[in-house]
Specification:
Layout: H1 2-21, H2 31-42, H3 50-57, H4 65-68, E1 76-77, E2 83-87, H5 92-97, H6 104-115, E3 124-127, H7 141-158, E4 162-166, H8 168-175, H9 181-184, E5 189-191, E6 194-199, H10 202-207, H11 212-226
Length: 228
C-alpha cells in the first residue's frame, strides 16, 4: 500500500511540475497553457501528403517540447514504403542533423535493414516523438500522446504494410498500451489493419548486444510477413 501511495505521490508531483512548466500557477490556466489547449483543438484529422504534414509539424506547439527543441526531426525514406520503422524520440545526433537515426544507433539500424535485403531509401524511418527534450530525459507520457496525432497522420500518408516499432516508448505510444517491450516484442500486433512488430531499439542493442539475436528473430518474422 505504501509503495502504491509513493507511486501516486510521485506521479502527482510530476504532473504539477508539468502544469507549472506550461504556465499554470493558479486554478485558471496561464496564457501558455491556453495556447497549448488551442493547438490540441485545431490539429486536423486528414493526413495530406508528407510535405504538407512536415510543414505543419515544424510549427507544432502541442507540448512543452516546442520550447526545448532546436529542430523537429520529421522522418525520411520512401514515401510509399511497405515497411516503416518508428523509433522512440530523436537522439542528440538526430537533432543536430535533422535526420532520424543518424548516429551510432542509426548505423546499427542501417545494418539491420541491409541484412533484411533492403536499404534505408526503400523503407521509411521516423520517431513517435518528433522533438528531443533539452535535458537528458525520456519524453513524458503527455508529450508522447501530444505527438501521437502527428504519427498517426504520418502512417496514413505512407500507408505501409508493416510497421516495426523500436523500443518501449514507441510501442506504448502507437499501440496505446502500458505493457513493457519485453512482453510486446516477438509477436505481431495490429494498428488500423496494419501489422505491427515491436522490438528493442538500436540504442538498447549498443548497451545489450546479446539482445541482437532476439531482434533478428523479430526481423525474420517481419521478412516472412512481407514475403522477403
Amino acid at each position: 500500500m505504501s509503495s502504491r501511495l509513493s507511486e501516486i505521490l510521485h506521479e502527482t508531483e510530476k504532473y504539477l511540475k508539468f502544469l507549472q512548466d506550461i504556465g499554470c500557477n493558479s486554478i485558471g490556466p496561464g496564457e501558455k497553457a491556453r495556447k497549448i489547449a488551442a493547438e490540441w483543438n485545431k490539429v486536423p484529422e486528414t493526413a495530406g501528403d508528407l510535405s504538407s504534414l512536415q510543414a505543419r509539424i515544424s510549427t507544432c506547439r502541442r507540448c512543452r517540447l516546442a520550447d526545448e527543441r532546436s529542430t523537429v526531426v520529421f522522418g525520411q525514406g520512401n514515401p510509399s514504403a511497405k515497411l516503416m520503422f518508428v523509433g522512440s524520440f530523436p537522439e542528440a545526433e538526430d537533432e543536430k542533423t535533422g535526420v532520424a537515426y543518424s548516429g551510432e544507433a542509426g548505423g546499427l539500424l542501417t545494418k539491420i535493414i541491409e541484412a533484411m535485403g533492403s536499404t534505408r531509401d526503400s523503407v521509411y524511418i521516423c520517431h513517435a516523438v518528433k522533438c528531443r527534450p533539452a535535458s537528458e530525459r525520456v519524453p513524458e507520457n503527455f508529450e508522447a500522446r501530444a505527438c501521437r496525432t502527428w504519427l498517426e497522420q504520418q502512417i496514413r500518408a505512407v500507408a505501409p504494410d508493416v510497421i516495426c516499432v523500436l523500443g518501449g516508448l514507441a510501442a506504448r505510444t502507437l499501440l496505446k498500451t502500458d505493457s513493457p517491450i519485453s512482453r510486446l516484442r516477438g509477436d505481431f500486433h495490429e494498428y488500423r489493419g496494419i501489422s505491427v512488430m515491436p522490438t528493442h531499439e538500436p540504442a538498447y542493442l549498443l548497451v545489450h548486444p546479446a539482445a541482437k539475436r532476439s531482434v533478428w528473430e523479430d526481423m525474420k518474422k517481419v521478412m516472412e510477413k512481407m514475403g522477403l
